[in-house]
Write a structure and sequence with these properties.
Number of strands: 9
CATH topology of the largest domain: Rossmann fold
GO molecular function: GTP binding
Order of helices and strands: HHEHHEEEEEHEHEHEHHHHHHHHHHH
Shape: globular
Domain G: 50-198
CATH architecture of the largest domain: 3-Layer(aba) Sandwich
Low-confidence stretches: 1-5
Protein name: Isoniazid-induced protein IniC
InterPro entries: GTP-bd, P-loop_NTPase
Largest sheet: 9 strands, mixed
Distance between the termini: 29 Å
Organism: Corynebacterium glaucum
Radius of gyration: 25 Å
Length: 486
Amino acid sequence: MTAAPNQAHRQSTESLNVLLRQSIEALAQGGPNTQHAANELRELVSSPPRVAVIGRLKAGKSTLVNAMTETRIAATGSLECTMTVTIYDEGAPARADIIGLDGKVNTVPLGGNVLTDLGRPVDEVDYVRQFVPIARLRDLGIIDTPGTATLTVENEARTRRMLIDGSKDTQRASSWADAVLFLSDSAPRDDERAFIAELGMTPLTTVGVLSRADSFGPGAFGHEDPLEMANRYADRIGEQLGASVGVVVPLSGLLAESALTGRVNGALARDLAALASLDREQLIDFIEFPDPSRVVEGFNAAQRDELLDVMGEYGLVYGRSVAAEHGPGGLLQWMRQTSGIDRLTEIITQSMPYYATLQRAVRIVDALESLANQPEIRDHVLWVQSVLQSQPQMNDVMLYRSFKNTVADSPDSRLIPQLRAVIQGATPAQKVGMPADAPAERVTVTLRQELAELRELAMTPLSAAEDDAREHLIVAYQAAWKQLNT
């Protein structure tokens, strides 16, 4: 996954969104039988892309949501609320719509507070949609989930109902996810890999997060920085997940949340700086003694517990010298960079929106195909489909669809790296996996070789997804050739 967007991707995103909105308005003109589906799809394309945060129970999902939004909006202590799927969208006044399985909606004003009471039994709730006036949510909505393969079957069922079953239901289009953050504190389990595969995403719309990386291995008091260990281990997890994720980012959710939600102030930084002169054994005693003033004069248990609550053991061990040398401003900068949240934020706000838009467009294409199976609206839907897919903006969408289907059907296909390079690349050179400034002659030779090999593949056994991908790659390479020689 690339770290930053390019101008071509930004323009493609804007152009594609306009086309999708026009197509949905055309769908709505088909009469009462198309209007409900059009209303759901209209709300979908009028909202920013949504990223779903998934992982096991207590994986740190709500903590990450708080860090991403720079606001403590996700309940981390209310078991009832963390057992429901919650969609966070930008909006005012702050409120929560609690959607029941019976279709009834109860609206609860939030007034700047965290939702702690659903007002009805959790097993009667479909999902919760919160509207909060947070600028971050204007560009990327968030779906917080109760977890996968958790201690209770019901929790996974709620997540599955929204992210997997719901993605096939046009009537739930307005709540579809366009990208995924997968949290895990260890090597991925078989059931987690299977769940990710069922989501219908690609490595370009799925980021792995190695949560609680600050306690990795022996933890903060080990002989090696646990975050450095986690960085090395993240690459191994990425290999184990194969084609499921694009990158795995180690993260200290606690440091990230504390830094971005205003929990660090001058007083806390001064308290942390007071620990800078302690050696390892003294710091352990400071944490474990009921009375910390035995180690640091003037410290009480409440101060010590506040430090641990905000910084964790890792923050105390590795952040105390930063606080002493650079004060609260330097400490905040260190927490953001060290925690991994800046790197993760760059990925999900810069490169991911383009791929999430392609993912969304593919789902709209799939939804139209499903609607075309209804005899009473078939002709109108087929007309909308034909007009939509004849537009040049849809070339990238159909290429991405081939990529998505190939990842799902043939995850070891040799075509996957080629598909990924074409989708990510902005120049002919990048589309064949070469540096953007590669000489035109070399790019031409590579394109010629790739086209020849793709044509030869027609004579070999391929899955249906691979054969479709091969044809779309040929079209993409031919377009790159034309662009190079124009």
